[in-house]
Amino acid sequence: MGDFYQNGIITTLHNLSKRPLDEMEAELCRFAKKRPLGLILPCLYSELETEAMPNITRHLAQVPYLDEIIIGLDRATEAEYRKALKFFSQLPQRYRVLWNDGPRLRNLDDELIAEKLSPREPGKGRNVWFCIGYMLSSNRVESVALHDCDIVTYDRELLARLIYPVANPNFNYEFCKGFYARVADGKINGRVSRLLVTPLLRALKKVFGPMDYLDYLDSYRYPLAGEFSFRKDVTTDIRIPSDWGLEIGVLSEVKRNYATNRLCQVDIADVYDHKHQKLSADNDAGGLSKMSIDITKALFRKLATNGIVFNQETFRTIKATYFRIALDFIETYKNDAEINGLSLDVHSEELAVELFARNIVKAGNHFLDNPMEAPFIPSWNRVSSAIPNFMDRLYEAVDLDMAEFGDGNSDKV
């Protein structure tokens, strides 16, 4: 059970009472009459064949307050898209599956490429961006939750707690981030958040001094959580990275657009586990190595927009400062694990820190070597300005795909 302590400069909503789920869902049903609620699920086709996604879908089928579920499907052939439509047909809510690799959406993407508006690379950021575009074109929901599709410990209470802060008309929150303890199978997980993001933020404060942006990011208990919720208006002019910097990019954008009293975080699960990325120490293009580089680049870019000037000496100082702070954190986590009867491999923790330290310099060098890089996906406001009927055609393309390859069950309203 969480405590009631408020840390940092955003509101933390705790799980203090183990409130009955049926009571919370009944309240959400009342909220939905005034503020329709939706859900975005960015997924790979391969995730439909894991133990996580069938369980998630079974839970979602029992959720009574959702007006629309938007599923972004990546890496799917035509046959796999057909299977995906059958897979999601058990949902009683209105749902739409975006076949991101299908010819209709690819043709639309070619138009974006021609206008230099297309996401730079495939991945979760691109998937989420297209789902947001469909949500805006559909115009059926006012508040939306988003969560990953590899959560093996999923329960629909997670969704209820995640969407509640932006669904309740008595709250003024525009954006809410989920958090949870990354503990499973007797181990403390969440290495990138624990061993990279938190010590790097502390190192940046030490190098550059107090900064509102760094205090803001450091207020989030789990800044890399893939679960968040928001009011629809948040998404129209947001600019997000297409790589692993997505979560940091989203947090940065909502900070730019809203006062911190409109932002919050909420405890959404006592137990949370999902698939784990490999460290990939010898491959900067995969695993936690790529993730750490992308996240660090996202931080450096945002600091540069705040007037911070970087050079190679700066990055070496940041690396050295980070390394010392991160090693101290390992000792802290070791003690925390021991008092809770959990295991923690100090050797593997230090290997991760050594990799992340090297990647801080790599991210810095990439930042310096690519001054003209445009790392963000354009906002949907810009797309609508450049191609006025694009969103209407996106809406139509998704419906045509489902009509052609599905069995008609998706038209539930």
Automatic annotation (TrEMBL):
Entry keywords, A to Z: Transferase
GO molecular function: transferase activity
Gene3D superfamilies assigned: Spore Coat Polysaccharide Biosynthesis Protein SpsA, Chain A
This protein's record includes keyword Transferase: yes
InterPro entries reported in the protein's UniProt record: Nucleotide-diphossugar_trans
Stated name of the protein: Cell wall biosynthesis glycosyltransferase
Native source organism of the sequence: Oleiphilus messinensis
